[in-house]
Specification:
6-stranded mixed β-sheet, 5-stranded parallel β-sheet, 2 domains, Rossmann fold, alpha/beta, about 45% helix, elongated, about 400 residues
Length: about 400
């Protein structure tokens, strides 16, 4: 570690030794909003350009590549080979995303924390990742841009090749002030950013959890259409999910007569509504029936994806009678998903048996099936997924 005043000399020495890439962790540059800080940052930029050094930062955590063990400070060294890249103007969020993402099925292969972006800014790294064949999804945390037009162009070009998810922070007056002392970048007017995001067709996140869940959704599934089937054990949940999903513009169409007849042949005569949403009632206790019904819904020509509701508390209650009941149910849903091209999304309802819920969550993540703890978050993410892939289809 060296102080900000010593950084220029160290950078000069690096140039003389032929060092090609330098990441500056040290802070105390433009983000402190003083003439001295801005002058120091201008100096390191000039040295890097003159010396042909690829400069990351200053005031950043630098580069991360899980495949080769290139690591942020504080992140474990275990090698993970995913397909996701992450670009962040925050070092802390870059770390949090690489670690937390794994819990949600988001395996970040490469990441960059670029801090003040004296020489290379998010748009430059976006241009790199859009052509990286090891990456098929890009997530970003952005506070602002030195060249808004450049970023807009990079977002448009990258998003045509692979999905880009962006969380733009600093939307309020207070947030803008905080950004100024964090990375020193110009945030820009919130309405201008909103218009730009709509123009680029990128998926937008509003906070960290939204970023993680949206990235999970895009990493694990695609969805070319807006119509969903809903499968649940509860009539009340069916109503809640129908309202929540429909509010975002997703459709819950009535299943075709052919699909309904097939479902009726699977389920016993217990008065189950087969139109959509489908409340399986007591039949839910038989995983084999759940699997068959899922397959039947997946064949419906008007259904683009299926939402499955699981209540961990009810599953635990049934397991008191039937051993390994929960594992049988999750396996049935996973087997049904693997036998069809129709995407499946699981909503794991609020529960008092959190340990059971986390085990179910992990099982679906390992099977690469998106799982959510809140129907509103599920609706939000599924709508963004449908928007992107429907738009991509229209571009072909």
């Amino acid at each position: 570690m060296v102080s900000n005043r010593i950084v220029p000399q160290v950078l000069e020495d690096c140039g003389k030794k032929g060092v090609k890439v330098v990441s500056i962790f040290t802070s105390g540059f433009s983000e402190i909003q003083t003439e001295e800080g801005r002058a120091l940052e201008a100096k390191v930029k000039e040295i890097a350009e003159r010396s042909g050094i690829i400069l990351v930062g200053p005031n950043c955590m630098g580069l991360y590549n899980s495949k080769i063990g290139l690591n942020f400070i504080g992140v474990d060294l275990a090698l993970h080979e995913g397909k996701v890249a992450f670009i962040s103007q925050s070092g802390g969020l870059a770390q949090n995303s690489t670690v937390t993402g794994r819990r949600y099925g988001v395996e970040i292969l490469k990441a960059v924390s670029c801090g003040n972006s004296a020489l290379y800014e998010p748009a430059d790294f976006l241009d790199f990742f859009k052509n990286d064949e090891e990456i098929n999804l890009i997530a970003m945390y952005v506070e602002g841009a030195k060249d808004g037009r450049k970023l807009l162009k990079s977002l448009q070009e990258a998003n045509r090749k692979k999905p880009v998810i962006i969380w733009k922070a600093g939307k309020t007056a207070e947030g803008t002030r905080t950004v100024g002392t964090h990375t020193g970048v110009l945030t820009g007017a919130a309405n201008v950013w909103e218009a730009a995001m709509k123009q680029t067709k990128v998926a937008k996140a509003d906070n960290f959890l939204d970023l993680i869940y949206t990235t999970m959704t895009f990493a694990l599934e695609s969805l070319k259409g807006y119509n969903l089937g809903i499968l649940s054990i509860s009539g009340g949940q069916s109503v809640e999910y129908t309202d929540t999903l429909s509010t975002t513009g997703l459709g819950i169409p009535i299943l075709s007569d052919e699909t309904q007849r097939e479902i009726e042949s699977i389920l016993p005569e217990v008065g189950v509504n087969t139109r959509n949403p489908l409340d399986m009632a007591a039949s839910w206790s038989q995983p084999g029936m759940v699997r068959k019904v899922l397959k039947a819904i997946s064949k419906d020509r008007d259904i683009n994806g299926i939402v499955v509701s699981i209540d961990a508390h009810r599953e635990k209650t049934i397991e008191l009678i039937e051993k390994d009941r929960i594992k049988k149910l999750t396996n049935a849903i996973i087997e049904a998903r693997n036998s069809t091209n129709t995407p499946v999304f699981v909503i794991l309802t609020a529960t008092a048996v959190e340990e059971i819920a986390l085990n179910i969550f992990d099982d679906f993540i390992k099977a690469k099936i998106p799982v959510y703890r809140d129907p509103a978050m599920a609706a939000n993410c599924i709508r963004k997924l449908a928007d992107y892939w429907t738009w991509r289809e229209s571009q072909n």
